[in-house]
Amino acid sequence: MDSHLDNILKDMDEDDIQAYLLTKFTNVEYISNYKPTSFAFCIIKENPIIYASSMDMEIAKNNSTIEVKEYESFEVMLRELKEEGISSLAIEPTLPFSSYEKLRDDFTITSKTYVDKQRMIKTPQEIEKITKATEIAQKSFLQLDILNNQNTEKEIAFDLVRLMIENGADKESFDTIVTSGASSSLPHAIPEAKQLEKPILIDWGAIFEGYCSDNTRTMVYTEAQHEIWDIVAEAHDKAIKAIRPGLKCIEVDKVARDIITDYGYGDRFIHSTGHSLGLDIHETPGFSIRDETVIEEGMVITVEPGIYLEGEFGVRLEDTVAIYKKANVIGDLPLMID
Amino acid sequence: MDSHLDNILKDMDEDDIQAYLLTKFTNVEYISNYKPTSFAFCIIKENPIIYASSMDMEIAKNNSTIEVKEYESFEVMLRELKEEGISSLAIEPTLPFSSYEKLRDDFTITSKTYVDKQRMIKTPQEIEKITKATEIAQKSFLQLDILNNQNTEKEIAFDLVRLMIENGADKESFDTIVTSGASSSLPHAIPEAKQLEKPILIDWGAIFEGYCSDNTRTMVYTEAQHEIWDIVAEAHDKAIKAIRPGLKCIEVDKVARDIITDYGYGDRFIHSTGHSLGLDIHETPGFSIRDETVIEEGMVITVEPGIYLEGEFGVRLEDTVAIYKKANVIGDLPLMID
Description:
Chain A is an alpha+beta fold. Chain A has helices at 2-14, 25-32, 57-63, 74-83, 97-103, 114-120, 124-143, 153-166, 223-242, 249-262, and strands spanning 19-22, 40-44, 49-52, 67-70, 88-91, 108-111, 171-172, 177-180, 200-204, 206-208, 211-212, 215-219, 274-276, 283-287, 300-303, 306-309, 313-316, 319-323, 327-329. The longest helix of chain A is centred in the middle third of the chain and has 20 residues, at 124-143.
């Protein structure tokens, strides 16, 4: 925690920035170990401070490694910053315009991603937590009796979450997707109150001690479905094999996209090949057609190619990899589920 | 839906604004009936348009009452706006700074809350959905066998969500709070893997056809707990009785806060008396010490006073009211649960 803070302070110093305002909950958590439940203003400076809401004071005092003060008003906070002689303030790119508007007259504002950049590289402890989250999620998936039950998509999604919690998860890392038949062609399908059709696509994850997991499996039945599955599996496997430090993210996306394009489905692969995860389910960098970030050891990124045939069905296969000299798949769930 | 759009266009016209950019998912949903699952740029203008991600195109085309176009890049979107001769652009106060930064050189930017303001006043259809959500949530609560079961807080929270879904909810409207004993003094407590202690505080809600419900009940046992419960119940009842169109929100907050203060617990009532709800669980206006909004017919707002004794316990009682000539409590769950 303290080394996180030291690194940020060093970055700020290099850019001649006196204070850095954090409001994104997971950024505040990353720096202080306190995750806000309503709102908080965390100000990184020589003597860092968190202005927490009165509602959060008890939990903030218990958890935060940084000094906590009760938030009174934006005006009081601004006055205290100005009294310290602070005139150059960095903000996160996600800061809402309404907050920026209240700051821009009093400070020189620059948007910075110091914390997000540091969060790109996971510590061994963070990778352990992501691994534990993945293990819980995969174990729970295997305990589901998907095919021999008469439950609806919605009920199966629900049972999977319950199993993850029983197996030690804090909660699910995003709304569990259980979709089947034609609706599997929607990458973000919402489980319906209908019996399973085929194919069956499940995209799910757990949170363990704050850290997310993310996996997708598609169970296919007809020859046409198997054919698409094989293409997606090839893209999945070859993209993972291609990953190594020094390569650019866009190059990994290209490996997966080229394979799918060669088979004639390039325009049916309608999203990126992968995204980082950690305290958030979507972090940077990602394997996308735009991301020029150079891959480094310690990154944890999903690989999730998919082909979506509108009106027919979709197939997506997703694993999360931790990057060392090469990419290690986290967890050991087979890609093909019978 | 169309009248929503017409009202916004009229507001824009009065302010001489040519286009209004919406990115908040529930605002896009309110205007178009399509709720984005990843990102979308909805631009309200003479001929309104939504730029949706490729992932969402199928669902957007199926649901949106507004023309949908596949998003290519921010640059393409800007160019198309400029080609239409648009130079004055309104944005939502929640727009992230990073998006604002990409717009400010090309447009005169003003932050506007046209949609949020319209969402303050619910239509009869919206109130029906909130009522249905509340009925599902309250029925599910009564089906829970809270006291005669050996489940942990976490498991009870989970069972409550399952019951809500079985009873027809889309999902929970926020992370269900089941907390007990000393942790009930945290307004946003997270259910733990521990057996219930006393008192027991449950704060829960359902979503039905997109619309949220919100209730809290606290089950008390000792004399000290009953004493605090009575004060909170008095604040709850008298605040609800005070509500009428024409009054300011801050005045309703004052009714509840004055009662609790008179009993000597003013500094232990550490949040607002209530918030609006609808497509979002937290909307404006709210019954708070800062909100000068004048109450109008059609608003739907929670009333949820609480007293939090750190290290001992907390009590909160919450109902949601629909405002007509006076405030009608939605649902019929008794305040005292034995």
